[in-house]
Amino acid sequence: MRAVTLPSPGGPEALVLAEVPDAVAGPGEVVVDVVATAVNRADLLQRRGFYDPPKGASPYPGLECSGRISALGEGVAGWAVGDEVCALLSGGGYAEKVAVPVGQLLPVPAGVSLLHAAGLPEVACTVWSNVVDLARLQVGEHLLVHGGTSGIGTMATQLAHRRGAIVHVTVGSPEKATAALQLGATTAVLYKEQDFVEAVREATSGHGADVVLDNMGAAYLPRNVQVLATGGRLVVIGMQGGIKGELDLATLLAKRASVHATSLRARPLPEKAAIVAGVLADVWPAVEEGDVVPVVDRVLPLEQAGEAHQVLEDSTHVGKVLLQVS
Amino acid sequence: MRAVTLPSPGGPEALVLAEVPDAVAGPGEVVVDVVATAVNRADLLQRRGFYDPPKGASPYPGLECSGRISALGEGVAGWAVGDEVCALLSGGGYAEKVAVPVGQLLPVPAGVSLLHAAGLPEVACTVWSNVVDLARLQVGEHLLVHGGTSGIGTMATQLAHRRGAIVHVTVGSPEKATAALQLGATTAVLYKEQDFVEAVREATSGHGADVVLDNMGAAYLPRNVQVLATGGRLVVIGMQGGIKGELDLATLLAKRASVHATSLRARPLPEKAAIVAGVLADVWPAVEEGDVVPVVDRVLPLEQAGEAHQVLEDSTHVGKVLLQVS
User: Fold this and answer.
1) Is the confidence metric ipTM above 0.90 for this complex?
2) pTM as predicted
């Protein structure tokens, strides 16, 4: 099969399409013939050599895909060759075939094309596991999402809005603000022009954010704690702004608040399967009823994986950048 | 009535016994004629002017007491004049009488003297709300408690041990280590001689602490994050080592861990009542069955509140320092 390989770390040019041995289904796995995969920020880190795949994972990038099941491993039940699926992966999506543990398979939601389904698993699992399962966002609560038009941002905005929360986002341009408001955000803060703490306090009449979903890490940590409401939960899922930040424990204590940091990729299989089951129960109905739509910025052929990475580096996109494999 | 007042902030000498107007029961409150109160570290902060009582609270120190109900406010049911009780207070325990919202009253557990019951409410509510309710310590999990022989430490050790967790504590002297081990701790780390991260890793075969109950704040933050197990919860309830610390988000994220900070005193009444109800259901049976005993370092008369504060300043005590009022 063909796969995008990483002979050595580097810029987008480090991604090299090559002929490699076919993926094979182990026990409890299926092989998916990939129709499309999607680019995640973790892929950029992996390409630069900063995010090695977990033990046992494919060495190729790609944390999600859509496609058709072409082979069943030992002990697999409930799935058949030919089934159209999408899947959460621990790697290997940038390839013609990928082996997937059955707990990470999802049916393609009604109303979504097999192509566009490639961009759903990672954002749906990330947002559901952090905003719904971990932070327990409630009806009427205020959610602040940084990077409101990223893949994560567009999913978080739509899902939280659908669940009856009030969504505030930060974005980098007026065009992105418009896109975020159309997806259900109540407030879109242009972070280059306005302090998000001040803007969110104003938008919430001083209440603050009950939940913050953050991809900036250290750079935003002090202000994320400031913007929290009493009982607020800050969930850090990315560290684009650095790793070590200053935590004001007195403010955290006065608010009886918490800071969580999580990732999806390194979790043990049973935890991933539980998250996928939660997504199927809680997110797929929202997609099938049209309240949550896959937001796709563009689709490029797998051969242009480097260009796709450049789009994310430039942060000009709204929603997911997909790579079509077949 | 007589009460210990704070005419101006300062050292232990700032505590001045004076004649003040009697406490009066508001709606939903009772007056308790205080038999004893206990010294908490928050009282020392309040005395130094760093911890003002919450709005509506008594200006006098004292976050818990035992005594007898002497008057019922409007709408109080289920309690009678003469009932022996202990209570969680938002202030005012260093006095002959104190008004208490009924949600903060507890019966004196069978087998505990009315005097010794004065030292139970604050530690029981703090430990239960943080270790059981918030951090959800499970059977077989590892709990690290800093200050293992403090009032909080002695309660946390006994309660967690009773609930089937494995308890590790830090202490300042070999005598305190012996006391902690007698209360059910598996490991007592002499923090002046040994790094607690290394000691707890060794004691847990590399697993780390699933829950850390911390009173040191900033000074311990980096090492508390290091010592956490995967999925670990750090709960900060004191900041004796400073307020602003460095948080390593990469480590937190790799462990899918969390940092919480809480306090009891400023919570709204319904939250306090829910905690008191949890203590009655979960902690009182453990006390009545003898698995959790009130650990009392010494009892001093109310007139010696200053000396009692000095004992906590010197940190030579094991368990609670009580003040006998009548």
Assistant:
1) yes
2) 0.95
3-state secondary structure B24-51: CCCCCEEEEEEEEEECCHHHHHHHCCCC
Q: Is 90 exceeded by the pLDDT of residue A52?
A: no
Cβ proximity of B109 and B77 under 8 Å: no
By C-alpha distance, the chain B residue nearest A218 is B249
- Chain B neighbors of A258, CB-CB under 8 A: 258-261
**Per-residue pLDDT tens digits for B187-205:** 999 999 999 999 999 999 9
Burial class, A310, CB count within 10 angstroms (exposed 0-12 / middle 13-18 / buried 19+): middle
**Mean pLDDT score across all residues of chain A:** 97
Q: Which residue of B has its CA nearest to A249?
A: B243
- Looking at the domain that runs over B126-261, which CATH code has it been given? 3.40.50.720
Domain A2-120+267-324 and domain A126-261, same fold? Reply is no
Task: Write the Ramachandran bin of B138: left for phi over 0, alpha for psi from -120 to 50, otherwise beta.
Answer: beta
The Cα A260–Cα A245 span in angstroms is 14
Among B218, B236, B253, the residue with its CB nearest the CB of A263 is B253
| DSSP tag of A102 | G
Domain ranges of chain A: 2-120+267-324, 126-261
Residue B269, both tokens: 């009444």
Burial per residue of A203-238, b for 16 or more beta-carbon CB atoms within 10 angstroms, e otherwise = bbeeebbbbbbbbbbbebbbbbbbbbbebbbbbbbb
Whether the pLDDT of residue B137 is over 90: the answer is yes
pLDDT exceeds 90 at position A72 = yes
Name chain A contacts of B257, Cβ cutoff 8 Å.
260-261
Inter-chain CB proximity B247 and A217 less than 8 Å: no
Contact A176, A203 (CB under 8 A): no
**Cβ contact (<8 Å) for B243 and A248?**
yes
Between A239, A256, A262, which is nearest B262 by CB? A256
Contact A258 B259 (CB under 8 A): yes
CA distance A190 to chain B (A): 25
Instruction: Spell out which chain A residues touch chain B, with contact meaning CB-CB distance below 8 angstroms.
Output: 217-218, 221, 236-237, 239, 243-250, 252-254, 256-263, 266-267
Band the pLDDT of B54: cuts 50, 70, 90.
Answer: confident
Specify the CATH number for A2-120+267-324; select among 1.10.3720.10, 3.90.180.10, 3.40.30.10, 3.40.640.10. Answer: 3.90.180.10
Q: For B245-266, what is each residue's pLDDT tens digit?
A: 999 999 999 999 999 999 998 8
Q: What is the pLDDT of residue A311?
A: 96
